[in-house]
Amino acid sequence: MIDHERDLASLHEATERLLTDAASWDNASVAEPSRLPGWTRGHVLAHLARNADALVNVFEGRPMYASAETRDADIERDASRPLDVQLTDVRATAERFAAATAAPGDWSRTVELRNGVTDSASRVPFRRWVEVALHHVDLGCGYDLEDLPEEFVAREIDFLAERFAGHPAVPSTGLRADDGRTWTTGGAEGGPVAVSGPAPELLGWLAGRRDGSALKTEGGPLPQLPPL
What we know:
alpha+beta, 6 strands, 8 helices, four-stranded mixed beta sheet, 49% helix
């Protein structure tokens, strides 16, 4: 059962953690490379701000983005802004998202996201939490996958395992965290492949943040996952 109110509270905490870390930087730090190829930290912060506005659009019944080209252009436009402008924008857009989700509405309704993806409105706060938490890691500022809340790690593995379930490029794959939690994903010909290791390493591999070299495999090589 999805608890969107709890997810909104967790999202607020994650946003505050990110803003607190970024507030210790200077303008030169914003221009430094992030962990995402081709993006500076400024690109990551700009994306987070524009994503919050896009999710407000979703809640208010508008298209998430006008177009893929507009989305990319807006991020590029905003990436080089000074630190204080970036942080003010991230906070202001987070507050707009909070206001949009505080308005009365049917949380069981289906909403349309980017690229025709649909989901329950109740899961959008978790989707936004994912954006903030993983991009905090992407900033490369000392906050890593091992610092993410355990609940978040397990739920995002659930989400990504579901996303790759039945994918024609991913063989049948069983996932096992060192603490005993298990998941299944894939389903194409080949396998089954068993993949095990620490939960943050599993998440890093599924989310494209780590290469999976710290994971153990049985029954075949580590599957090559399609980009998210």
